[in-house]
């Protein structure tokens, strides 16, 4: 039985992705810090695990064959949480995945993570964390897909997306719903080769 571990399932994209996989009758292990944040989700395909990503969450990987890492420290936290969640928890997740022989690791990264020095902004620590986490996954030997969304919005899911970065930087955005739907497709159709791609709304 195929089972997907979603790390950060109570976040905005994480919750949307969890619901989409459940709607598709896929077995999901939702890893969250507070299970009450998923209280509205009710499905025979869902197992909720309550663990802190700053601790040991190795056991969450048991009997899973796919992982979606969509956890994030959030925009209102400091560099300390960015380091502990976006980098260190992601690195630990990759290492745990290797121990459990995970078949496909899907990492939600960010536009700009390929070259944090190219963007001068106050989110540079976040981009550095994402860059290092991505590099750890790339060098892990796992089968992986790294998704790098543009600026996230709360617009409704249009289901029209592109991997081509818009020439106008202001258009380099994507709804969280579209990201979640893309993650569903990646989880359902594991690519034969490792992939890294950016993701944007199609205008």
Annotation keywords:
203 residues; alpha/beta; Rossmann fold; eight-stranded mixed beta sheet; NAD(P)-bd_dom_sf; SDR family oxidoreductase
Mean pLDDT: 93
Number of helices: 4
Spatial separation of the terminal alpha carbons:
38 Å
CATH architecture descriptor name: 3-Layer(aba) Sandwich
Overall tally of domains? 1
Total number of strands: 10
CATH class category name: Alpha Beta
Query: In CATH, what is the homologous superfamily?
Result: NAD(P)-binding Rossmann-like Domain
Q: Give the radius of gyration.
A: 16 Å
Widest sheet, order of strands? 3-2-1-4-5-6-10-8
* Unreliably modeled segments: none
Helix and strand composition category: alpha/beta
Helix/strand order, N-terminal first: EHEEEHEHEEEEHE
Major sheet details: 8 strands, mixed
CATH topology: Rossmann fold
As a percent range, the share of strand residues is 15-25%
Give the helix level as a range of percent.
25-40%
* Shape call: globular
């Amino acid at each position: 039985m195929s089972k997907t571990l979603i790390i950060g399932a109570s976040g905005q994209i994480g919750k949307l992705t969890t619901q989409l996989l459940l709607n598709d009758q896929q077995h999901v292990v939702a890893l969250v810090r507070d299970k009450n944040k998923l209280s509205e989700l009710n499905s025979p395909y869902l197992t909720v695990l309550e663990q802190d990503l700053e601790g040991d969450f190795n056991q969450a990987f048991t009997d899973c064959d796919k992982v979606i890492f969509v956890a994030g420290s959030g925009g209102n936290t400091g560099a300390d949480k960015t380091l502990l969640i976006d980098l260190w928890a992601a690195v630990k997740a990759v290492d745990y995945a290797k121990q459990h022989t995970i078949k496909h690791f899907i990492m939600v990264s960010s536009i700009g993570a390929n070259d944090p020095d190219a963007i001068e902004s106050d989110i540079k620590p976040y981009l550095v964390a994402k860059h290092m986490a991505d590099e750890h996954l790339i060098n892990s030997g796992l089968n992986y897909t790294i998704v790098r969304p543009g600026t996230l919005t709360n617009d409704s899911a249009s289901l029209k997306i592109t991997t081509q970065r818009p020439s106008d930087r202001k258009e380099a955005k994507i709804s969280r719903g579209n990201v979640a739907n893309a993650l569903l497709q990646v989880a359902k159709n594991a690519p034969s080769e490792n992939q890294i791609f950016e993701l944007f709304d199609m205008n």
